[in-house]
């Protein structure tokens, strides 16, 4: 569970509710028809804007925002350095066993390409192509919620217009003007809340998560190519650290591979 996402949403809703309660009645802000106009309109417009399969995948995208735990760059660098140490001691073919223990498919695929003796340039092209399409898929998820964030205030305004039309039809009853105006403005309120407390923050969180994952994948590509080139594990560690901010570099604690007889223990650290 991503505590920041959960804390932000619960905290935002709590503060808004508290502010409304201090200034008036909560029941005045509850209007089911207004909510249906805004939320239903946004959902309908999203189905028109995106393929059906992409909208259905929204639940998977939300899982990334709330639950998915991404790999830490420090952990990835530690694993790559240990793989480099194994390759240096036993040769590239010895990485096949270690690759089978890797949980990250991207790194596993890169290591197996190296074990198979694939040309370094081809390894780089395959991994970079996969990374490019991964980035495109991430952008589609972000754009879906950015679209919802842009549409929600617009449907809030549409709801307000609908409310005003209904109110103007009853101008002969002055007592109905005030409540009618308030009801009309609630849709604008709902649209703004959905856009600024839900849809746009989710799009922003997806963008941050995407950047983190792409950075880790770039570290993996550089690490795989360095292993294939037979570079010294210590040099690889320093090279990969350059991808990170200075503060993050301090958290890297690579367990050096043992000289002999303990190589299995080293391989245990190579699991991601």
UniProtKB/TrEMBL annotation:
Its main location: membrane. The chain crosses the membrane at residues 7-29, 35-53, 147-168, 180-204. It is a multi-pass membrane protein. GO terms for cellular component: plasma membrane. PROSITE patterns: MOTA (PS01307). Keywords: Cell membrane, Membrane, Transmembrane, Transmembrane helix, Transport. One of its GO terms (biological process) is bacterial-type flagellum-dependent swarming motility. It is found in: Cell membrane. Residues 100-216 form the MotA/TolQ/ExbB proton channel domain. Belongs to the MotA family. This is Chemotaxis protein PomA. The lineage of its organism: Bacteria, Bacillati, Bacillota, Clostridia, Thermosediminibacterales.
């Amino acid at each position: 569970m991503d505590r920041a996402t959960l804390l932000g949403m619960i905290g935002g809703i709590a503060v808004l509710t508290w502010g409304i309660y201090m200034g008036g009645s909560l029941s005045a802000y509850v209007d089911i028809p207004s909510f249906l106009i805004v939320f239903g309109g946004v959902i309908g417009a999203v189905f028109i804007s995106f393929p059906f399969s992409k909208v259905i995948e929204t639940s998977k995208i939300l899982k990334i925002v709330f639950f998915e735990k991404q790999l830490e760059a420090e952990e990835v660098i530690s694993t790559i350095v240990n793989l480099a140490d194994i390759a240096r001691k036993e040769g590239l073919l010895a990485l096949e066993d270690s690759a089978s223990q890797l949980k990250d498919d991207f790194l596993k695929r890169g290591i197996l390409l190296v074990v198979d003796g694939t040309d370094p340039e081809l390894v780089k092209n395959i991994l970079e192509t996969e990374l490019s399409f991964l980035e495109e898929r991430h952008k589609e998820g972000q754009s879906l919620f950015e679209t919802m964030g842009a549409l929600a205030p617009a449907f809030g305004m549409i709801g307000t217009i609908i409310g005003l039309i209904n109110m103007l039809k009853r101008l002969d009853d002055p007592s109905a003007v005030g409540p009618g105006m308030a009801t009309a403005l609630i849709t604008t309120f709902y649209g703004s809340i959905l856009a600024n407390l839900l849809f746009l923050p989710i799009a922003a969180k997806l963008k941050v998560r995407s950047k983190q994952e792409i950075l880790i994948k770039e570290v993996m590509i550089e690490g795989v190519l360095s292993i294939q080139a037979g570079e010294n594990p210590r040099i690889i560690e320093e090279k990969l650290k350059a991808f990170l901010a200075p503060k993050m570099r301090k958290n890297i604690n690579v367990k050096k591979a043992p000289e002999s007889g303990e190589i299995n223990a080293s391989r245990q650290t190579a699991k991601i």
